[in-house]
Design goal:
- This protein is an all-alpha fold and 267 residues long.
- It is built from 15 helices and no strands.
- The longest helix is centred in the C-terminal third of the chain and has 19 residues.
- It is elongated, with a radius of gyration of 22 Å.
Length: 267
């Protein structure tokens, strides 16, 4: 996963005043969805060594905005910005290496760039580095390191990291087994809309653990929500648990799910 276009607005704050003109012109054009002019302005700023413009120019080439998709150009511009210490570019360059787009696929290089960005506090890089440690891609597999990096990202609100922390606490993988912590992390991710965490939270409610009393109504509720978010496993689980519920409980569970979905649709 990458640092994406939503960060472009906030990034202007770190642009040196002497280099901000062309970059800001490009940003204004980007806001207006005038990607061609955004690219022209950022090209000028990038040629002057503006790392932020180099990053955003790479982003345009990667996404095909204002130009044809060109992963090689994206990688080249990301690299220039990354070598100047731009954490967003380091994260996205790592992602290109992981996928083998515009560069020869190389998990070690992916880890190298994720590590640099993660050390600067970039949430997406911290999550990506956790994934690499978890799966042993580009490095020796290390669940404890995976959990550590997931925690850094999860504490900053990364939904995927929160869901993974729930799983690792539940299974004791690289971290002490702790059902209360598992439920807490699953709930954070579930409330934020993560369908996998919603499914897992329902699963724990169905069976009951030391941190949760068995509750078929809550299990049904979370599986209904997960199903509405595209989690295929949730439908089978919901149908199964309905056989163990009274008609009144099913009505109650559906109402809770409907209320949750409506409330979160407004956000």
């Amino acid at each position: 996963m990458q640092v994406v276009a939503a960060i472009l607005i906030a990034l202007t704050l770190s642009v040196a005043p002497a280099l901000a003109g062309d970059f800001e012109d490009g940003l204004n054009a980007y806001r207006s969805k005038d990607f061609a002019n955004a690219r022209q302005s950022w090209q000028k700023a990038a040629a002057q060594g503006n790392a932020m413009a180099q990053f955003t120019l790479g982003f345009l080439y990667e996404k095909g905005q204002g130009t044809a998709v060109d992963f090689k150009q994206a990688a080249d511009w990301y690299r220039r910005a990354a070598e100047r210490g731009n954490a967003a570019a380091q994260t996205n360059l790592g992602s290109l290496y992981e996928r083998g787009q515009g560069v020869v696929q190389d998990n070690r290089q992916a880890v190298n760039w994720y590590q640099r960005a993660a050390d600067q506090g970039t949430i997406e890089a911290q999550f990506n580095l956790g994934r690499m440690y978890q799966t042993g891609q580009g490095m020796a597999q290390d669940f404890a390191q995976a959990a550590s990096w997931f925690r850094k990202a999860g504490e900053k609100g990364h939904i995927g990291a929160q869901s993974m922390l729930g799983l690792m606490h539940e299974t004791g993988q690289g971290i002490a087994r702790n059902y209360k912590q598992a439920v807490d992390w699953y709930r954070k991710a579930a409330e934020a809309g993560d369908s996998r965490a919603q499914f897992d939270l329902g699963r724990i409610y169905e069976t009951g653990q030391e941190a949760l009393t068995m509750d078929y109504v809550e299990a049904h509720k979370w599986w209904t929500i997960a199903e509405s978010n595209g989690e295929d496993r949730a439908r089978r689980s919901r149908i199964f648990v309905e056989r163990l519920m009274t008609p009144e409980q099913i009505v109650q569970a559906r109402q809770r799910a409907d209320d949750w979905i409506k409330a979160h649709a407004k956000q």
